[in-house]
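Chapter review: from sequence to fold.
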Amino acid sequence: MGADLDVVYAREEPPDRWEAAVFLAGPTPRSPEVASWRPAAVAALRERWRGHGRLVVFVPEHRHGVHDDYVGQVEWEERCLHLSDEVIFYVPRDLATMPAFTTNVEWGMWHDSGRAVFGAPPQAPKNRYLLHYAAKSGVPTAGDLPATVAAALDRIGAGASRTGGEREIPLLLWREESLQRWYAGQRAAGNALLGARVVFRFGNHWGLHVRMHVAAERRVKDNEVVFGRPDVSAVVLHRPGETLDETEVVLVREFRSPCVNGFVHELPGGSGAGAPSEVALGEVEEETGLVLDAARLRAHGTRQVNATMSGHRAHLFSARITGGELARLRSSGPHGLAADGERTYVEIAAFGRIRRERLVDWSCLGMIAEVLLEVR
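The token string follows.
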């Protein structure tokens, strides 16, 4: 499919499929005698778009210059801002003809969305505050319109084909492996994404308010947020005792803000690049100081950790450790990756104590029980 560009003006209905979408945010002239900057932006996008497929450009100006429904205009802009992969803020502010008061509000709402680029001529007044927050939020900036457009298209790349409710997932999230894995599972079950709204994104963690058609029940469910993050690998390091309750398990204690008492006991584990088993070995060394040979690692399968809230999974492994290793672990100091603010302390407890004293949460307890029941 060749490159194509569709312009959608105010109050017009967006197409049902595209590879990328941008919104041209910024001041609109108050008088027909003042030329809009947006036609030049559309021309620059048309010239520079190198993706294979459709680029949709949302222009919040009426095709025929008629603005007759303020509330409808605002609602259309809100909808199309959320549909956009990139929001191009270009602010050639003129206090007499284009004061950009509404633009200031929109910038405040979108500057830290991960989807904004900002441009303004050097002589445009009253943009210092906006530029300050562009720098603080890592927003690409430029001093002219062509460079601003180029910054947006650089992040879009070739785009990605989306249709229906998929259009509401912006490229910055669409490209996340964890999102694609969750969505592939939904499609395999016959379910359809009717709508979505990004509620937060922090690094590779995200939250998406979704509207799903549930095929098996022939109904629509729209009252849940799906949380996502990369999969984790967790390892049960154990030393068998005479009974199941006397089997000793290596835990790590670490401060975690969501934990109601601050510190949580959990299994060595985490996420990272590489195969799950490689991640498992690396996390054991990082959080306990124990270096394991890959041949000692036993796989126990993969499951979601909290299927009512998060789409991520845990890859479960175990290793039987020696008495000497257990003794060294008992006397080891704090570990963790300091650059990530991580500090872990090794604590060893018998399975019976773990259960009685409720040292771990339900998901961790289940992983420990799965391993110990399987290896005995």
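Two observations follow directly from the output. The mean pLDDT is 95. The chain is about 30% helix and 30% strand.
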